[in-house]
Amino acid sequence: MGPRIEDMPQDFKASLCLPTTSAPARTHSNGNCSSYTETQHLSVVGIMFVAQTLLGVGGVPIQPFGISYIDDFAHNSNSPLYLGILFAVTMMGPGLAFGLGSLMLRLYVDINQMPEGDISLTIKDPRWVGAWWLGFLIAAGSVALAAIPYFFFPKEMPKEKHELQFRRKVLAVTDSPARKDKDSPSKQSPGESTKKQDGLVQIAPNLTVIQFIKVFPRVLLQTLRHPIFLLVVLSQVCLSSMAAGMATFLPKFLERQFSITASYANLLIGCLSFPSVIVGIVVGGVLVKRLHLGPVGCGALCLLGMLLCLFFSLPLFFIGCPSHQIAGITHQTSAQPGLELFPSCMEVCSCPSDGFNPVCDPSTRVEYITPCHAGCSSQVVQDALDKSQVFYTNCSCVAEGNPVMAGSCDSTCSHLVVPFLLLVSLGSALACLTHTPSFMLILRGVKKEDKTLAVGIQFMFLRILAWMPSPVIHGSAIDTTCVHWALSCGRRAVCRYYNNDLLRNRFIGLQFFFKTGSVICFALVLAILRQQDKEARTKESRSSPAVAQQLLVSGPGKKPEDSRV
């Protein structure tokens, strides 16, 4: 026999099918819909925007400036490996954050108390909200401690030995013509004077603010006119759009598609996806260093990695779970013999329109929004060794009046989440093979004095064209798959149920679209690089007879000036 109605917790009592006279007791207050409350919400959103802005400003010394910093003071052959390590260590942060988030989400958002009205919630309850804010405090403290060593860095890092010797030789060669020209200034043409000034800019990178403002427009236009730079940046925009959508909505996608908890979804992502990303970045840097890849080799590696990533993304369209059968939404009870059409079977219950306390009929695997929508008038709590299970009985909308269990129905294919995430991780690793080679194409494709500015422009494009609009695009696409919205203050608040097939096809389809765009950009990059390489070889073959003739004319005791360089 179930407990008396007066002894029940508020969520049980308000969700039952009670006589009409009890309806006012479960009417939800509209006190949270006042303009003052909305103003408070907007102020919290504003604080979040300011915090994200400060976070972006604080990350500039590491990326993008750190990339140019490493490439300036490292040997050319070691730079790809160092950058690969930098990118890999950078990705360790999100991986650890997902693991930390998994632990924090096991705690209720108000750590020291449960919701008002003695509402009993578990981590598997769809209404559960984890302590999402606690991870920010832990991460902020860790960042503050990690920033302390930066105060002890020297103003200028010592260059690696071989790189320093190489630069001295280059400066010695370039200084010789300059010294000769000092003796005959009248012979300098305006074009030669401009080239000399450009060379001085390369040798002396420390410009004043006024000099930088004068040089900036020319350098900006020169960088934007570089076809390799633009195509590589566009490919990275596509990859960043894919990564932004995946990082923002993959936990929610796994939670809805495979009916797992948010904590478990974050744990899987932190343990599988981000380690594979780190491996892909490091392997990409090692391949560039060990194989001594030039621009054409880097372009080929990027294209190969993205083609394989695109190939392994195809099975993701077919791995997923069907939508839940929700009475009155995706499932009509009249389809089963002996049952009345929803919602006539519970018309006498006066169920709240905004209620949400899902229950599941284990015999038919049909889910009801609340016990009231199932026509249940009483509840029974069965105590077990580790937990208690709540059942609702006397349900007029359920076949033969069978009891229903509290909570959403378990999915029959939750085990598919592991192979799904393994394929996602493999595709992420293959996509991240392109990370270091694509950066090397940019760093080696622009002038040395323009490197920092080029990387800064690149990151500006990534933020504006990828990281800002991509979550909005993914979120809008996901919202179109919703079949039942919860209302708050008369407006749509949160989606309770999705069409899983549409959700999977549109989410994975967006990912596939961005990957295809990256493949096209890398294919164009490789085609342009091969054309440039072919033209350089043709020019070199044509100039070889002239050089040989010059050697014969100059005699064995003389060497042409160009041969020294």
N-to-C order of helices and strands: HHHHHHHHHHHEEEEEEHHHHEEHH
* N-to-C span: 96 Å
CATH superfamily of the domain at 61-106 and 217-322 and 417-533: MFS general substrate transporter like domains
* Gyration radius, rounded: 32 Å
CATH architecture of the domain at 61-106 and 217-322 and 417-533: Up-down Bundle
GO molecular function: bile acid transmembrane transporter activity; sodium-independent organic anion transmembrane transporter activity
Protein name: Solute carrier organic anion transporter family member
InterPro entries: Kazal_dom, MFS_trans_sf, OATP
Family: Belongs to the organo anion transporter (TC 2.A.60) family.
Architecture overview:
The chain has 565 residues and is of the alpha+beta class. Among the domains are: 61-106 and 217-322 and 417-533, MFS general substrate transporter like domains (Growth Hormone, Chain: A); 325-329 and 349-410, no CATH class. It contains 17 helices and 8 strands. The strands form 2 sheets. It has a 6-stranded mixed beta sheet with strand order 1-3-2-6-5-4, with no helix packed on it. It has a two-stranded antiparallel ribbon with strand order 7-8. It is elongated and about 100 Å long. The N and C termini lie far apart (96 Å). The model is unreliable at 1-10, 21-29, 177-204, 333-342 and 554-565 (pLDDT under 50). It is found in: Cell membrane. InterPro entries: Kazal_dom, MFS_trans_sf, OATP. The chain crosses the membrane at residues 44-69, 81-109, 129-153, 228-250, 262-288, 300-320, 416-443, 464-487, 507-529. It holds the Pfam family OATP. This is Solute carrier organic anion transporter family member.
